[in-house]
Amino acid sequence: MNELVLPRAVLWDLDGTLIDQTTSIIDCYTEVICSLGYTRPDPNQIRRSLGGPMLSTMKLFVEADQLEHSCKIFRKRFPEMMLNDLIVLPGAESLIKWFAKHDIPQAILTNKHGETARKLNAHLGFSKNISLCIGNDDTAWSKPQPELTHYVLQQLKCTTDAVIIIGDSPTDIETARLAGILCHCVSTGAHSIDELLCAGAITAHHSLEQLATIFESISSGN
Questions:
Q1: What are phi and psi of 145, to 5 degrees?
Q2: What is the domain extent for residue 169?
Q3: How far apart are CA 154 and CA 169, in angstroms?
Q4: CB 167 within 8 A of CB 183
Q5: Which of 37, 126, 169, 208 to pair with 192, CA 20 to 30 A apart?
């Protein structure tokens, strides 16, 4: 338990952690894959693959010679669908504001297309407290590559000391492990608490509201 300290910086995952866009993401993958003549994909298989790069999900359904094309179609189509059934997950706004109140720097680190992620960050008002939002294609790296995490920390002018990732998937946990930092998880994505703990999360919770109580307790000295 002595590892649980108030973080010096917080790196947020986006999908499944701060927001739920599962419906529109699955719908877009399905539309793109079917438009290329493939069999309608299993939505659960798509859901379980989320958290990694788009290319990793597309590889499950699309032949290698169509991968680049399928990703281009997705990036063009998704912005037209991305606000459909968009949900801000319980506790997201309040925990972001809590960290900001305590002068803890925050950034969003996601495998979502960077431009799309920043549009969502602004649309939802998260950008008032999280100005740095780095996504796929913004750099030469993607999660879980440690170079990406270190790049984001450089932008925040932080070392890895007492930095945490808050996420919902084994990808987030591996991102933290490779960068030498800790990962707190919520089971609001496609993975259970047991799966997240087995993958190496330092803590795992049903919601961000539950996770917030840990930081509140640390801050109050309890």
A1: -60, 130
A2: 9-20+87-220
A3: 24
A4: yes
A5: 126
Q: Which residues of 10-40 are buried (b: 16+ CB within 10 A; e: fewer)?
A: bbbbbbbbbbbbbebbbbbbbebbeeeeeee
We report the CATH number of the domain holding residue 110 as 3.40.50.1000
The residue written with tokens 């109580």 in the block is 213
**Contact residues for 74 (Cβ-Cβ < 8 A; gap 6+):** 28, 29, 32, 54, 58
Q: pLDDT tens digits for 136-169?
A: 899 999 999 999 999 999 999 999 999 999 999 9
Number of domains in the chain: 2
Segment 9-24 shows an average pLDDT of: 96
Over residues 159-217, the pLDDT tens digits come to 999 999 999 999 999 999 999 999 999 999 889 999 999 999 999 999 999 999 999 99
Task: For residues 185 and 141, give the distance between their C-alpha atoms in angstroms, rounded to a whole number.
Answer: 22
Listed residues 53, 81, 109: the one ending a domain: 81
Is the per-residue pLDDT at 1 higher than 70? no
Strand order in the sheet with 9-12: 132-136, 106-113, 9-12, 163-167, 182-186, 203-205
Please report whether residue 4 resides in a domain: no
Using alpha carbons, select from 31, 1, 150, 12 the residue that is nearest to residue 88. 12
